[in-house]
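User: Once you have settled down, look closely at the record that follows, taking as long as you need, and be ready to discuss the fold:
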Amino acid sequence: MYGLGNAGARFLKERLGTPLGRTDWRSRNKTYTRESLDHTLAVSRHLIDLELACRAHAQAELIPFDEILANAPENTQRMANPSSWSISVQWHGTRSTILIAPDAIFGLRMKDGAGESRVAYFFLEIDRGTMTITPSERVRESDAFPYRATILRKLYAYADSHRQGLHKSHLGIPSARVLTLTTRASRALVMRHTAETLIVRPMKLPAALFLFGVQSGGQDPLTHELEDAGGGKTRLLPNTG
């Protein structure tokens, strides 16, 4: 594993036009925490496993974020951080702004037995088991809820973004599902139940909007079993035998 230095950043910016901003990369590497490193590696591992799985399954093709961005609205393409967007939410009479920043955005182009293809898009969230899932009722009923980093707030932001159609206006994609992968089955179950009782049912959203599972750990992520917010069993590649 390597950290990007200042000389490397200049090379990427001058030779490839990569927008990196003004950052002292050497100092940034020194302040990188183990928790952040573990999370970054977990995201990278899943994306690598996903790309390798798509190579092994003739009926699945990975759509990387670069391809999605190339077809996104021009305003999004010009942004310094096009993989994130802000959403204005109403919470107990107070208007708040929440930033949505998926750990990764990707699509899958899948063919069925008849050769017909369909495309599905996903917002990936890798959970390392450190974030509070559901805050206390006192916090949930207060104006502070939108500013507390919890799984519930993250799910609520995605739900309201879906309801406002921001995935389409920001990225130009017709729909997207939120795929949350965590460290153990018991935690995934609590997340799923939270999404069902506090998000999907009250907001009358489709249960398939949210998918939950355990990080595959090198297994095939296309055939790894997941559950939607209603408890339905599914996989990213459901037609695989």
Q: What stands out?
A: Strands lie at 60-63, 85-91, 94-100, 104-111, 117-126, 177-182, 210-214, 226-228, 233-234. The chain has a mean pLDDT of 90.
